[in-house]
Amino acid sequence: xxxxxxxxxxxxxxxxxxxxxxxxxxxxxxxxxxxxxxxxxxxxxxxxxxxxxxxxxxxxxxxxxxxxxxxxxxxxxxxxxxxxxxxxxxxxxxxxxxxxxxxxxxxxxxxxxxxxxxxxxxxxxxxxxxxxxxx
Amino acid sequence: xxxxxxxxxxxxxxxxxxxxxxxxxxxxxxxxxxxxxxxxxxxxxxxxxxxxxxxxxxxxxxxxxxxxxxxxxxxxxxxxxxxxxxxxxxxxxxxxxxxxxxxxxxxxxxxxxxxxxxxxxxxxxxxxxxxxxxx
DNA sequence: CAATAGTTTAGAATAACTCTAAACTGCTGC
DNA sequence: GCAGCAGTTTAGAGTTATTCTAAACTATTG
Lengths: 135, 135
Fold this sequence. Notes:
The first copy, chain A, is 33% helix and 30% strand. Chain A is α+β, with helices and mostly antiparallel strands. Chain A has a three-stranded antiparallel β-sheet. In chain A, strands 5-4-7 form a three-stranded mixed β-sheet, with no helix packed on it. The structure holds a DNA duplex.
């Protein structure tokens, strides 16, 4: 299982250090694409797993992984960032009461009528967030 | 100009205090629907306008206005909340480099293929954020 | 395996809020 | 009109999420 994480880091041009390997393993190994974690969640999980990692490193690593295209940052609530292991084109279902986030494939969804993009700008990405509340 | 703000607060069931009137005036009077402010921005504007308001009150007021349906909270970046004077059904264009936020009428946009909503949940709202970068 | 460049870390620092408890102020009712 | 109270405001402390700093460590390269 370490091998996949190792290759992933290498391919992303990140030096495969002990803590990055541990975090990459936790994030990607044995989990379906589409895990959503916050820094605190991943930190707690790493600790529970016996990994010796600092919270600062978890933050650094999440940001580096995001920069390297291994993760994607999702902002749904003020105050906390979520990171998604699914970096493909997709959208989100957000359960307001539990804070749970669930992926929705982008090719299921069709968006029509987007306004003209101003000259000099280009679309970096379109985020659709369906906010759900308990009925 | 004070009259509109006064009526707006009354209709929202908020006691029209000096600071609420001032903030409501700044937010709504003489501005087209669709202003986007952060707490710090509104605080600075109020100060520049000579209003005696504390930052805590700006935060409280923005939250109360949001609760009363006078404003809508928009989360696009980690770390800061934006408040939108347009409370109608609409979406956003977000300029990543400048941080500018611009409204897009919802009836221009059509979204198809949303996944089935889980039993027991209902859609509170659908947010579409078109993130733009400089080309 | 030594040098070095990139990493990690504890703890301090920052940013964006929220809370607290005391001071203040609209709004009643008389 | 004004006393009195419930609702507001505020300064400053507290909290939370995150970043910074500078020293200690470690993966890679020669």
